[in-house]
Amino acid sequence: MIRLYRALLRLFPASFRMEYGEEMTAAFAQGCVGVGPWRRLWLLLRTAFEDVPNALAVHWTIEQAQAELWSLAARLARKYPTTNAETGISFFRMRDYVLPRNRLMLLALSGASLCLLLLTCANLATLLVARAAARDRELGVRAALGAGRERLIGQLITESLVLSLLGGIGVVLVAGLRRSALFQSCASHAAGWERASTRRRALGVAVPCRH
Amino acid sequence: MPFSQADLAALLPLQIAEFHILLTLSAGDCHGYGIIQDVEARTDGALRLSPGTLYRTIQRLLDEGLIEEPRKAAALKSGPRRRDYRITPFGAAVVRAEAHRLNELVRMARGVFRVAPQSS
Lengths: 211, 120
Known about the structure:
heterodimer, A: 80% helix, B: 6 helices
C-alpha cells in the first residue's frame, strides 16, 4: 500500500513532492496503522481521485489570478516596505496584447495558409485521378484475373493513404525544423511569436485534409 | 511584523481546512499527522484531512505567513520525517478574525430563525 502511495506521489508537482513527499508518506503510513483494509483502500483512492487532481488542476479565472497577484503585491509591500511599498503588479492576457496589434497580419497569414492547403489538395487530387486513369490497363488486367470492384478500390485507397501519410510525416518534420528559423525572422514584428509552436489541433485538420 | 485590518480581511474567508489547521496550531506546535488527528478528533470524524490536502494547505499557509517552521534549518540538516509547524502572530490574528466572522454569521442566522416562524 505504501508503495502504491509512493507511486501516486509521483503524479504531484515535483517541487511539492520534494518538499513534502516524505512527510506525506509518513502521515499516510501512520493513518494506515490499526485500520482495516477498506479504510486503507479508501485513503489510497482519496489520494488518487481527490488529492492528485487538486494538486494538478489549478484552473483560475483571470479575475482570480488578478486578485491573487494583488494580494501577493500587498503581502510583498507589507514584508518589504522600503522597496515594495509603491510597487504593484499589472496583469493582462498575452492574446489581448498581441492580437489587436497583429490581427491583420495573422488573418493574412491564415488566409494564405488556407489557400495553399486547398491548392495542394486540388493538385494532389488531380494527380491521383490522372495516375489512376493512366493505370487503366493494369486495373483491367487485375479485374480480368478476378479482382472485384471493392478490391480495386481498396488498392487505390491504400496507395493514396500510404502516399499521404509519408507526405504528412515529411511535412511535420519540415515544419518542426523550419519553425524556429521562420519565427526568429518574425519575432521582431510580433511579440510572443518566438514561442509559437505547431499545434496538434492544426495538424489534426491539415493532415486529414491532405488525405 | 505589523499588519493591518486590510491584511486580515484580504485572507478571509478561510477555507475549512485552513481554519482547522490554524485552530490546531493555536493550541501549540504540531506536526502534520498530529494535525490530522487533532482535526479528526475535534470534528468527531466529520473532517478527515488527507495528507495531500493537509500539505497543500500547509504550503499555502506558509507562503501567506500564517504559520512557520520553527526548526526548519535543523530539520533539513538532520533529515527527520517530522516537521513541526507553529502559528505566527499574523496567523493567530487571522484565525481569530475568521472565528469572529463566523460568529457574526451565526448570530445573524439566529436572529432570523427567532423572527421567522418554524416550518414543520
